[in-house]
Write a structure and sequence with these properties.
This protein has about 170 residues and is mainly alpha-helical. The chain has two domains: about 1-40, no CATH class; about 55-165, no CATH class. The chain contains five helices and no strands. The chain has helices spanning about 5-30, 55-75, 85-90, 105-115, 150-165. The longest helix has 27 residues, at about 5-30.
């Protein structure tokens, strides 16, 4: 055996070992117990209720549904509850924290795993609304639940309403 044939054999063995290790790593990342990064553990808290879409579709397309719902509601005035963010939160909020955010939160858990930021909750609350005992009404938010952005928006609305009211002279202000 010559030096070049020994060298060629060593290179082939090394390449085979690298390929074998890579294929074993690929098998591990598809869900076996030896995966490098553990999959998020999503807790479904409402027993017996079925989501509005199958799980595999919601995992991949929930953002499309939420954006479509937003466009229908905000731009077209069509209000439905099928894919509303409020219904998602009400159904998936942790019963202990009443929120979908936080370390074990339904949304936070998967988005942290996928390294995807959520901008929903820069405007919306991540907490489920609790119904009051009186005729199923939803109570007004406490001052702790109202963000600065909410207060600015309310102030702008009040100013716009005030400016639209006719003054004592009959002209709007």
């Amino acid at each position: 055996m010559t030096f070049s044939s020994i060298r060629r054999t060593a290179v082939l063995l090394a390449a085979s070992a690298v390929l074998a290790a890579a294929s074993a790593g690929a098998a591990d990342s598809r869900g076996s117990k030896a995966a490098r990064t553990p999959l998020p553990q999503v807790k479904i808290t409402k027993e017996g209720e079925k989501c509005v879409e199958p799980t595999d579709i919601m995992r991949r397309r929930h953002m499309e549904f939420i954006l479509h719902q937003r466009d229908d509601t905000m731009h077209r005035g069509i209000r439905t509850t099928r894919h509303s963010l409020k219904n998602c939160i009400d159904c998936h909020a942790d019963p202990k924290t009443n929120s979908v955010l936080g370390e074990d939160g339904f949304c936070q858990n998967c988005h942290a795993y996928a390294a995807v930021s959520m901008d929903c909750f820069s405007c919306h609350t991540g907490k489920a609304e609790k119904q009051s005992a009186v005729s199923g009404l939803i109570p007004l938010a406490s001052s702790a639940d109202v963000s600065v952005r909410d207060m600015v928006m309310m102030s702008r609305l009040q100013t716009a309403e005030h400016n639209a009211q006719p003054s004592a002279t009959g002209k709007s202000q």
